[in-house]
Specification:
Elements (H helix, E strand, L loop, with lengths): L24 H4 L15 E3 L11 E3 L4 E7 L6 E8 L10 E11 L1 H8 L16 E8 L13 E4 L2 E3 L5 H4 L10 E2 L11 E5 L4 E2 L6 H5 L4 H10 L8 E5 L4 H12 L3 E6 L2 H9 L4 E4 L6 H8 L7 E4 L4 H10 L5 E4 L12 H6 L3 E4 L5 H12 L7 E5 L3 H10 L5 E5 L3
Parallel strand pairs: 12-13, 12-15, 13-14, 15-16, 16-17, 18-19
Antiparallel strand pairs: 1-2, 3-4, 5-6, 5-10, 5-19, 6-7, 7-11, 8-9
The structure holds zinc ion (2 copies).
């Protein structure tokens, strides 16, 4: 590899502390990421981007167009295009980076964004997607203190950007930043071969986890990981997971197990039952077969009900039932986002049982690293079907019908 050189540290005021060393063999060939040698678009070339400092810098050539799935207008249909423009390195702003995607997960949120059925409208035209894994192929000129460098394998998650300076950010709640930007919602997401993101917010992907397995940890994984973390549940406590056989739920079972909790999986159908039990759920309840769900859940815990519930099902009924079956002092983690759902609960019993209702929204950059670290150590495994971008429409249909078991991950290298 002729391009391997020693690290070059630039100390001018623009690139203070920015380590712009040429990609080493290791960074050019991330352990599970795409191989530049097998992809002509990734062949190293002389950099234009950083030529101000080093005319012989190694970087990547970027195509002018790419394949992308686009919703052109509010309520419009999804179209797969082959000629969508790629933002060129010289057009990146300071702090922005261009990531060539290896793969991306498909989340229920993407379906809501495409249908625009949430109270807050998505941008249009919209490229959805917020569970992308790929490599950094360009960084905007004059970017300072970048925590990532060219060739790094990184993740794109729902929270694309936060200001890091508002009260929420200062208090470690960056996911509710007043200036937050969201991948595949307020900024274009990962249903394209290249995506623009921010060096401060892309998530380094640890070694030891394949890109398709890491993809869904970036939203589904971090969402349930944080919810369980903040539920206050202790080792040996009971947790119910309504929606346990779905994208979030099947990861929640494993994170709960890793934290020493006892899992009651709630969902429907033999395929989801088998997956939940295989992943370590101690009890399984099919909500369609159950004649008295509240009683069945309480009975599964020996009577008093679970200590917590992380609700990943998108049916508002799942929230109403929880107040009835939770034990006194329990916590309900509100996670899934039904389109028009209202949280309806009996105030008397919420008060007298001392139930805590806690809305938990994705996670911080730190939560994402923790969730990925647990997965990379083999404690949590995403069950996914790998499909092509062209399969996005049918995936949305499956999500709408509730027939997607685990996760669908799209291969973006084609
Ligand atoms: Zn998501
Ligand atoms: Zn902020």
């Amino acid at each position: 590899m002729a391009h391997v050189r020693t690290s070059l540290r630039v100390s001018c005021s623009f690139h203070r502390c920015l380590d712009i060393r040429p990609p080493s063999i290791k960074t050019l060939l991330p352990s599970r990421g795409p191989s530049p040698s097998s992809n002509p678009k990734l062949l190293p070339t002389t950099s234009l981007l950083l030529s101000r400092h080093s005319s012989n810098m190694t970087t990547y050539s970027i195509p002018k167009t790419q394949k992308a799935a686009i919703v052109e207008s509010v309520g419009g249909t999804l179209t797969i295009k082959d000629n969508h423009p790629v933002k060129q390195p010289e057009d990146l702003k300071p702090g922005e980076c261009l990531v060539q995607l290896d793969c991306t997960g498909v989340c229920h949120t993407d379906l809501h964004a495409a249908k625009n059925d949430w109270p807050i409208p998505a941008k249009t035209p919209l490229i959805g997607g917020h569970e992308g894994v790929g490599i950094v192929v360009a960084i905007g000129a004059h970017t300072q203190d970048s925590p990532v460098k060219l060739g790094d394998r990184v993740g794109i998650k729902w929270l694309a950007y936060s200001c890091l300076d508002c009260e929420a950010c200062r208090k470690g709640k960056e996911q509710v930043c007043e200036k937050g930007q969201y991948s595949g919602f307020t900024v274009d997401g990962t249903f394209s071969q290249y995506v623009v993101s921010y060096v401060s917010h892309v998530t380094p992907i640890p070694d030891g986890i394949a890109s398709p397995e890491a993809a869904s940890i970036l939203c589904a994984g971090v969402t349930v990981y944080r919810a369980i973390k903040y539920s206050g549940a202790n080792i040996g406590d009971w947790i119910t997971i309504p929606g346990a056989g779905g994208g979030l739920g099947h990861l929640a079972i494993q994170y709960a197990n890793a934290m020493g909790l006892r899992v009651i999986a709630i969902d429907t159908g033999a395929e989801k039952r088998d997956l939940c039990l295989k992943l370590g759920a101690e009890k399984w309840i099919d909500f369609r077969e159950s004649k008295d769900l509240v009683k069945d859940i309480r009975d599964a815990t020996g009577g008093p009900g679970p200590h917590t519930t992380v609700i990943t099902a998108t049916s508002p009924a799942a929230y109403e039932q929880a107040i009835d079956y939770l034990r006194p002092g329990a916590t309900m983690m509100v996670v899934s986002l039904p389109a028009q759902g209202k949280l309806s609960c009996d105030i008397f019993f919420t008060v007298t049982k001392g139930i805590t209702i806690h809305g938990s929204y994705v996670g911080t950059r730190q939560d994402a690293r923790e969730a990925l670290d647990i997965a990379a150590r083999g404690k949590v495994k995403c069950y996914y079907q790998l499909k092509q971008l062209d399969a996005l429409k049918e995936t949305y249909e499956g999500l709408e019908k509730g027939t997607v078991v685990g996760r669908v991950v799209l291969d973006m290298k084609q």
